[in-house]
Amino acid sequence: MKEIILERVNERDVPTFIRLENSVTDAKTYPWVMTEQKAKDKLKNEIIYFIKKENINVGTIRCILKSSEHMYLNGLVVDPKFQGQGIATTALEILLANELKDFKRVDLVVHPHNAKAIMVYLKLGFIIESWKDNYFEDGEPRITLSRIS
Ligand SMILES: CC(C)(COP(=O)(O)OP(=O)(O)OC[C@H]1O[C@@H](n2cnc3c(N)ncnc32)[C@H](O)[C@@H]1OP(=O)(O)O)[C@@H](O)C(=O)NCCC(=O)NCCS
Predict the structure, then answer these.
(1) pLDDT grade for 27, boundaries at 50, 70 and 90
(2) Ligand 1 pocket: which of 53, 57, 116, 120 to mutate (most atoms within 8 A of CB)
């Protein structure tokens, strides 16, 4: 899918970033609600990309640098209007092949019922590493997936 590109999010993009993040909130698997303050904090502490399809912002990817060899994926969102077209898969492929190509370890946590997300990660070479009950102290489990290169 050639028309997908990634573009860094900056301060002036906060309203669009909040809209995309809040388009997918799910009580069980993705319970977070983005506010303006949280968005500004995340911009300071995370590397955030818009996923753009034909120049429309259709999703976000958020990364946290853990070390020179280890990147943590802290979020992956595709606006429901654009889901099911391979956009998350293509965007992550691009990220892994370019911005993250020198990281030996890329990892993330995901709710075990989040089948769509898990399918995307498994297709791209992530493996299931561990399970933890009540991971975010929200009463729900999460699994850790990692991709080691
Ligand atoms: C997870 C998410 C980013 C996927 O975005 P997307 O652009 O629709 O993903 P893709 O189209 O690239 O791939 C989805 C895959 O899931 C598969 N899938 C869809 N519904 C499924 C289901 N119920 N069970 C299993 N697999 C399913 C699709 O078939 C597709 O795989 P395929 O391309 O091999 O057919 C999107 O659903 C989302 O934003 N979810 C809410 C936020 C979230 O949970 N993010 C992940 C947090 S770790």
Answers:
(1) confident
(2) 116
C-alpha to C-alpha distances, 35 to 14, 20, 31, 32, 83, nearest whole angstrom? 10, 12, 13, 10, 23
144 CB within 6 A, ligand 1:
no
One-letter amino acid for residue 94 of the chain: I
Q: Is the pTM of this model over 0.90?
A: yes
Q: Which tokens belong to 36? A: 């303006």
Which residue type occupies 141? P
Q: Which tens digit of pLDDT belongs to each residue from 33-79?
A: 999 999 999 999 999 999 999 999 999 999 999 999 999 999 999 99
